[in-house]
Design brief:
Elements: H1 2-6, H2 8-19, E1 20-21, E2 24-25, H3 27-33, E3 42-47, H4 49-66, E4 69-74, H5 75-78, E5 90-95, H6 101-112, E6 117-121, H7 127-131, E7 134-135, H8 150-169, H9 175-209, E8 215-220, H10 224-239, E9 242-247, E10 265-268, H11 276-295, E11 299-304, H12 308-313, E12 316-320, H13 328-346
Parallel strand pairs: 3-4, 3-5, 5-6, 6-7, 8-9, 8-10, 10-11, 11-12
Antiparallel strand pairs: 1-2
Length: 364
């Protein structure tokens, strides 16, 4: 798992090379995607586990950047619901292996109804990639550890690229904005690589500091809620420590009753200062941190490098290099992966082979 966390910059570079020609979107990919979209702009995303969390991030990307109407479903639920969907949305299925049984069942069902399908997998020759109308493969390389790391960040990158293709097709993004987004995406692998060793040392220290905690609550707003969910899942599956991910604004609607010395918070408090909605989200998160400090909560926060406001309100602050709102999740999740890894080490867990789990949930 640790090796694959460190492989993420290279995996991202390989994946971007599949879809970018220098600083431009590859024309052949746009041609492949041309007939995929639903005319009414409706999209269904179905996936399980970490892949569903990347789908939750994609919901925000496709709605904010493209103006599409997106629903995200658990594949395990969708595949056995029955009924029909008269909207005939375009369907995205996401799976690291491309063989996940529940997601394959969902793909079969929507294909039988004649809905247009797109598969995002880390295996271009997988069943899912072959059966979907369009395949957008990753180039993460073989991922052996059960907890998904490099496949997850590559999923986020490809979903961001899908949003750029769709925004361009729909005329919702001008050439200058498109170029700026591509440039920021291309900078990300180097930015993550430069932070890895520092994050490794910091998260190892934090795992030792917090190893007696019974439960963690991970909090995020907007697109960062998906990363709160993913951070909590990584901690559960890697270290057997209970954790839950919530929208930050929901803390006071019940979960705050759990917050105590043995139940710390992990709060995503990064910000894109160029985006008004991100600034609003950030201010609300800062206000929550003030209230949690007054309450005496122990808080680990992820914040922009140099953010003294957040650093002064929390117990521990992990710095992330600033980038666009829609790319911050790719950087944010990496220190959370490291935290899960080192919590497992602290507890003597074989992190690469967690109990009761397998790399791909397939039919037996």
């Amino acid at each position: 798992m640790l090796r694959e966390i460190y492989e993420q910059p290279a995996a991202l570079r390989r994946t971007l090379a599949l879809y970018l020609d220098g600083n431009q979107l590859r024309r052949e990919v746009a041609e492949r995607l041309a007939g995929w979209a639903n005319p009414a702009g409706e999209v269904l995303i179905t996936a399980s586990g970490s892949s569903r969390h990347s789908g939750l991030a994609a919901e925000i990307l496709l709605e904010d950047l493209c103006g599409l109407a997106v629903d995200v479903e658990y594949a395990s639920e969708y595949s056995c619901r029955g009924g029909s969907d008269s909207r005939y949305p375009s369907v995205i299925v996401i799976s690291q292996s491309g063989e996940t049984s529940d997601t394959l069942a969902a793909l079969r069902e929507v294909s039988q109804r004649g809905e247009k399908t797109l598969a995002i997998t880390n295996a271009g020759s997988s069943t899912m990639a072959q059966r979907a109308g369009v395949s957008m493969p990753l180039a993460a390389g073989v991922e052996k550890a059960i907890p998904a790391t490099k496949s997850f960040t590559c999923q986020l990158a490809v979903l961001f690229l899908l949003a750029l293709y769709e925004a361009q097709r729909l005329g919702r993004m001008d050439a200058a904005t498109l170029a700026a987004n591509i440039a920021q995406l291309q900078e990300l692998p180097d930015a993550i690589e430069a932070k890895l060793d520092g994050w490794r040392d910091q998260m190892a220290a934090l795992a030792h500091k917090y190893n007696s905690a019974n439960t963690f609550l991970f909090l995020g707003r907007g697109i960062h809620y998906a990363i709160a969910r993913e951070g909590a899942l990584k901690l559960k599956e890697a270290s057997y420590v209970h954790a839950e991910g919530y929208p930050a604004g929901e803390l006071k609607h019940g979960p705050n009753a759990l917050v105590s010395e043995s139940v710390p918070l992990v709060v995503l408090a990064t910000v894109d200062n160029a985006l008004e909605a991100s600034m609003v989200r950030y201010e609300k998160t800062v206000q929550l941190l003030r209230e949690m400090k007054a309450q005496g909560a122990r808080v680990i926060a992820l914040a922009n490098a140099g953010d003294r406001v957040v650093a002064e309100l929390v117990t521990d602050c992990v710095q992330v290099r600033a980038t666009t709102e829609y790319l911050l999740p790719i950087a944010e999740v990496v220190p959370l992966q490291l935290f899960a890894y080192f919590m497992a080490v602290e507890r003597g867990v074989d992190v690469d082979r967690p109990r009761h789990l397998s790399k791909a949930v397939v039919e037996k």
